[in-house]
Amino acid sequence: MPKRPKQNSDHAHRHNTPTIDNEAISKHLEALLTLAIFAQQKYYKQLGCRDIIFN
Questions:
Q1: Tens place of pLDDT per residue across the chain (55 aa)
Q2: Most C-beta atoms within 10 A of its C-beta, which of 1, 8, 12, 37?
Q3: Cβ atoms of residues 50 and 44 within 8 Å
Q4: Nearest CA-CA partner of 41 in 30, 32, 31, 52
């Protein structure tokens, strides 16, 4: 019986596990992203582009 060729690990299915929900980190990220989103909206408005709300 022929041997099976070795599998390439790059083609293996990876299992993503969720990270631990850290409230301090999520609040900090939300504050940073909110400021960036509002700054981008202001820039678009100055250029005369339509206003886009990012979720």
A1: 667 777 666 666 667 777 777 888 888 889 989 998 889 888 888 887 765 566 5
A2: 37
A3: yes
A4: 52
